[in-house]
């Protein structure tokens, strides 16, 4: 595994530190654009690494400027992986919100920042309000103990260490 995390990450108590511990080895090498490079990079990762990396980037971008910012930047290329990743790790509310927000841009999610910017520029005020409500829902989910993304992701990491740490098996 090219981007294996330090096995010590599995012993960390703080769930967010566990998640960051498996995402951090990938962080600096991630090519957000063009999509073809990103796609090749993501293909080298385990399904769990793809899920957590995409979820981490997307939630940080949403907190930093909302869905419109996520869609505007190259990080928006990660949305399809984040949607699938949320389902994989059991973070269903996040996947649902991401899916609904992506659908505001059209039936087919635009895979380039340029296409997403054009789609965003065509949004009506009603569609923008819809995105704002979805952002609020996303942030509320992050703040709720019952849907703590760090806890959910850490649980997945601990249950599937072979996807994150070299030489580890699920146990």
Describe what this molecule looks like in 3D:
By secondary structure, the protein is mostly helical. It is 65% helix and 0% strand. The chain starts with 14 loop residues before the first helix and ends in a 12-residue tail after the last helix. The model has no long low-confidence stretch (mean pLDDT 94).
Q: Rounded to an integer, what's the Rg over CA atoms?
A: 16 Å
Overall number of strands: 0
SSE string, helix = H, strand = E?
HHHHHHHH
Determine the oligomeric state from the structure.
single chain
N-to-C span: 19 Å
Beta fraction: under 5%
Mean pLDDT: 94
Kindly name the structural category: mainly alpha
Number of helices: 8
Which descriptor suits the 3D outline?
globular
Largest sheet: none
Please mark out the parts with pLDDT under 50 across 5 or more consecutive residues, or reply none. Answer: none
- Helicity, in percent? 55-70%
Task: Label this structure with key terms.
8 helices; mainly alpha; 0% strand; 171 residues
Topology:
Elements: H1 15-27, H2 35-43, H3 47-72, H4 79-89, H5 92-104, H6 113-121, H7 125-143, H8 149-159
Helix pairs in contact: 1-3, 1-8, 3-4, 3-7, 4-5, 5-7
Short description:
The protein has 171 residues and is mainly α. It is built from eight helices and no strands.
């Amino acid at each position: 595994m090219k981007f294996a995390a330090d096995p010590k990450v599995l012993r960390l108590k703080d769930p967010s530190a566990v998640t960051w511990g498996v995402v951090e080895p990938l962080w600096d090498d991630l090519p957000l654009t063009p999509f073809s490079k990103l796609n090749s990079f993501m293909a080298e990762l385990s399904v769990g690494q793809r899920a957590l990396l995409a979820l981490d980037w997307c939630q940080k971008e949403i907190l930093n400027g909302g869905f419109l910012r996520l869609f505007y930047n190259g990080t928006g290329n990660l949305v399809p992986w984040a949607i699938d990743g949320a389902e994989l790790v059991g973070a269903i509310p996040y996947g649902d919100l991401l899916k609904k927000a992506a659908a505001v841009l059209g039936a087919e999610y635009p895979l380039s920042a340029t296409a997403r910017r054009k789609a965003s520029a065509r949004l009506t005020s009603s569609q923008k309000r819809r995105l704002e409500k979805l952002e609020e829902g996303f942030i509320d989910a992050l703040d709720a103990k019952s849907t703590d993304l760090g806890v959910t992701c850490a649980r997945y990491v601990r249950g599937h260490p072979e996807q994150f740490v070299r030489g580890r098996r699920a146990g």
